[in-house]
Amino acid sequence: MSQQPHKPTPGWLTLLPTACLLVFFVVPFAIMLSVSVAHRVSGGFYEPGFELDSYLRFFSVFFGKILLTSVMISAGAAVICVLLAFPFTLSLARMKQRGQTIVLVILLSVLSLSEVIIGFSLSTLLSKTAGVGNLLAFLGIIEESRAYTPSLLALMTGMCYLALPYSVLVLYPPVSRLDPELGEAARMMGASPLQTFRTVTLPMLRKPMVGALILVFVFTLGIYLLPQVLGQPQHWTLSVHITDQAIFQSNLPFAAAMAVLLLLVSLLMVGLSLLLSRDKGAET
Fold first, then answer.
1. What's this model's pTM, rounded to 2 decimal places?
2. CA angle, residues 7, 9, 12, in degrees to nearest 5
3. Cα gap 153→156, rounded to integer Å
4. How many other β-carbons are positioned within 10 Å of the β-carbon of residue 168?
5. Long-range contacts: 261-268, Cβ < 8 Å, 24+?
6. C-alpha–C-alpha distance, residues 47 and 64, integer Å
7. Residue 86: which of 210, 220, 185 has the closest Cα?
8. For 48, which DSSP code?
9. 128 or 11, greater pLDDT
10. Does the N-terminal or the C-terminal CB of the chain have fewer CB atoms within 10 Å?
């Protein structure tokens, strides 16, 4: 049976990724960049121009605190999610195939819940009149029911609930491919379980863990609703202030400048994480 000659890939197919990148990223970013340096017109709009007034407003203590708050909250949520997802994924990989399938389906179903449903459900659960407060008071742990929202605890709970499935889904493939004989070999050579985990398991999963950290950090940096529903005003992130400037303050140039700053911060943190996770052995 003769084999059909291999047909080369049409050249125009290689242009599709470039075209998608131009249409869905470069062009919108160029528009946003042009709006960020436009001249704001009193009354709620703007006119073309080139001025850096919107960017100069970043050099203030107020917006420095907003930026620091956004980065710290997102970084905290990323660390908590990876710390929770890592042992969970290790346990999941040791389950039988049917159990793994059921757990993964449940995780994927959580992703179908919108930020609105999660935010208002947690707001009700952590309120004074329903849920956790009444349960703790009933058990005698606290004297009387109290509200746990709005607070930083409620905000971090909501962010971690929303982002934890992504961490598990990033870690699951490499964890499920781990060879158990490596750990057994280390234990046969006298290593304790902690030493086996620190010297064998953890180095092999360092890059997937950094990938999960980056994914959750970038994802939570753009969360808009949860800081308003579950957090206090001092916990509002840059995404909330961008919406406030664009819709309620009618200051589109400043909102676009903050969006550019948010993108640059995301790229900076991703680059820094990749730099720190480089394999030093590969450089030598």
1. 0.80
2. 140
3. 5
4. 23
5. 261/58, 261/67, 262/70, 262/221, 262/222, 262/238, 263/29, 265/67, 265/70, 265/71, 265/221, 266/217, 266/218, 266/221
6. 28
7. 210
8. S
9. 128
10. N
What DSSP string describes 114-173?
Answer: -HHHHHHHHHHHTSSSSTHHHHHHHTTSSSS-----SSHHHHHHHHHHHHHHHHHHHHHH
Contact 32, 260 (CB under 8 A): yes
Rounded alpha-carbon distances, angstroms, from residue 102 to 92, 99, 114, 176, 244: 10, 5, 21, 15, 41
**CB-based contact 163:77 (threshold 8 Å):** yes
Task: Look up residue 3 and give its two tokens.
Answer: 């084999």
> What sign does the dihedral 49-53-54-55 (CA atoms) show?
positive
Domains in the chain (CATH in brackets) are 52-278 (1.10.3720.10)
Quick check: bond before 150 cis, omega within 30? yes
Amino acid at 95: M
So what's the pLDDT on residue 284? 44
pLDDT digits (tens, 9 = 90+) for 35-55: 888 888 776 678 888 888 888
CB 227 within 8 A of CB 240: yes
Tally the C-alpha atoms within 13 A of residue 182's C-alpha that lie toward its C-beta.
14
CA-based angle 173:178:184, to the nearest 5? 160
Q: Which long-range contacts (CB under 8 A, 24 or more apart) does 31-39 make?
A: 32/256, 32/259, 32/260, 33/256, 33/260, 35/252, 35/253, 35/256, 36/253, 36/254, 36/256, 36/257, 36/259, 36/260, 37/253, 37/257, 38/252, 38/253, 39/253
Beta-bridge partners for 41? 45
CA nearest to 257, candidates 60, 30, 37, 69: 37
**Which pLDDT value is given to residue 80?**
94
How many beta carbons lie within 10 A of that of residue 136, not counting itself? 16
93 phi/psi in degrees, rounded to 5: -65, -20
Q: Are strands 45-47 and 39-41 parallel, antiparallel or unpaired?
A: antiparallel
**Mean pLDDT computed over every residue of the chain:** 83
